[in-house]
Amino acid sequence: MRREQQRWHVTVVGGNSMRRERLTRDLRATLASSEKITAGFAVPADTPTDPRTKGSVNQDMLLWAAIAAASSRAGAQVLIAAIQHWCAREQNRHVEIIGTRASVVIDGQPVDVHRLVDQLDSEPDALDPPVGEA
Question: What is the pTM (predicted TM-score) of this model?
Fold first, then answer.
């Protein structure tokens, strides 16, 4: 069976920037400790690369996560389950997973993983109708 590698962007949402940064680093460490998930920090294109530059670079830190799986749906299930487990440790944690077609927000509340995978795999039009239509 051929395995494909799917990649998503993951960001911690809500709270102040210091808390988001701390939680983002903790989430990256948790995802990276998984045998199935590869994770790292995604550096925005407009980030200065000069080491002499001062100031905070990533106030809203962005992660990338990749999973080699038989299908993108299987990879999404693994990623969502891992993030859902991480969020369940503290009820105020909220994480957005951004795929190629859509995005989903996960919090500490129990939710059906298959429903979230369906939302993440759906076309953007199915989630958000165009402005003026409802």
Answer: 0.73
